[in-house]
Amino acid sequence: MMTTTTAEEREELASPRAATASSTRIVTELADLAELAAPEVSVCVLRRGVDPDVDGFVREWLLPRPISEALRVDPGAPDLAALAAGAPSSPGREAFLHDVRGLISLFADLTGCPRVGVRLARLAKPMCPRLHADMVTVRLVTTYVGPGTEWAEHADVRRDRLGHRANGVPDEVSGVLRAGARLRRMDPFDVGLLKGEAWPGSQDRGAVHRSPPGTSPRVVMTLDALA
Questions:
Q1: Are 193 and 43 in contact (CB under 8 A)?
Q2: What are the residue boundaries of the structural domains of the chain, listed by start?
Q3: Contacts of 94 (CB under 8 A, 6+ apart)
Q4: What are the residues whose beta carbons fall under 8 Å from the beta carbon of 84, sequence distance 6 or more?
């Protein structure tokens, strides 16, 4: 079940600045993820409601375990057994694998890639704590449990202060964000598509994002387009 945008998001997206300069699209329909193709867009987020069966399985089986899996799969017939290895058969297990298969199929349809890289991890600390842009074409990210990925508008970022270029100074004081800028955060089960620097025409425009701060445990899946 899809959720609607918040009143804050509706106001922002309706503003003159958003209409002319926003690098983000927040959508509630699968078909609208195609907006990622617009040259000015670097982040497209599909708002999704929490699936109680998937949520229950992830919390009961994946969250308590040190999960770290990386797979290369055929999107037409992905072998995902390793993502739920050892888990007893249950509606929650099947719902989780069905959700992952659906996201792989969606991602392959959007990108046209013949293979998909799947990463599933249980994290207890930020994997990528600094704002950065990835050297990929596009990456899909969804957080099943815990705080989601944070991102910034393209116009709000000083790219010469991203990542290691800030010389170890935290994002909050490095000046990487322009005055008045704020980070946005995905909710659990949201599907985020993040353009990378390797997307055609996106050099110096790749999605600027980071892992959320703190030590709240998270279960995160990412998909990458492979040749």
A1: yes
A2: 7-226
A3: none
A4: 57, 61, 62, 93, 96, 97
pLDDT in tens, 155-203: 999 999 897 777 778 888 898 999 999 999 999 999 999 999 999 999 9
Q: Which two tokens stand for residue 150?
A: 């944070």
DSSP string, 56-105: HHIIIIITTS--EEEEEE-TTS---GGGGTTPPP-HHHHHHHHHHHHHHH
Count of C-beta atoms within a 10 Å radius of residue 61: 19
Q: Could you tell me which of 219, 216, 131, 133 has the C-alpha nearest to residue 175?
A: 131
Distances (CA, A) of 96 to 51, 75, 86, 152: 9, 16, 14, 29
Q: Are 196 and 202 in contact (CB under 8 A)?
A: yes
Q: How confident is the model at residue 125 (pLDDT cuts 50, 70, 90)?
A: confident
* Predicted structure pTM score: 0.88
Confidence of residue 131 (pLDDT cuts 50, 70, 90): very high
- The third-level CATH classification (topology) of the domain covering 7-226 is Jelly Rolls (2.60.120)
